[in-house]
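Exam revision sheet. Question 4 asks you to relate a sequence to its structure. Input first:
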Amino acid sequence: MPPIGAGRKLSDPSDNVAGMDLDVFWGLLDRSASVTSDQQERSSWLSSQLALLPPADICGFETLLNASRGRVNTYAHFHAAYVVCDGLCSADQFLAFQWWLVGLGRSVLASVAACPDALADVPAVRTLLAVGAESWPDGAWPLWEGLGQVAHDAFFTATGRSLDNALAVLGRVRVTDADPFSGAVWDVDSPLEAAVRLPRLWELARGMEEAA
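Answer key, structure tokens:
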């Protein structure tokens, strides 16, 4: 628990988001995906669109982004990411994995937030597992680090000021890592734990490995 009076992380579920409607937030992400599948280009498009909006809307986008990724900030979701990435997912990379999930859209995030094993049903995950992490080029990894920067770039473009400072005035601090996760902790390297806790995802990952 943070000390009394400490800034809250933007993923706090109690935060009241002002300045951007949730439908607008998801609409921007959906439109970015329709413009291009390239993550860097999506980030640039989002930043340019956000820079046209009032500063309060840009703050709202940042808050909604981190509240959304906070829905999958559990140890069970970290374990699922660990399985997808064949054990090559650190706690730091998990934050970028969460942003990648948000970038897949509202319905995907809702499904996976409710059940980490639902990653087995996500087409992008199935495609990645079919190829295997050892064969993924850098741009294919299920990580979107740039999504966490788009509102900051947009706010500076629009105002010439730091979004971090604006958020601090609101009593919020920027999320820079996924730790701490919520929920119980177990051995993510244990095949038994994976088989019990993520049966469909684990079976899919094992099946893809055997087929390869």
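Marking note for examiners. The beta strands are 8-9, 172-173.
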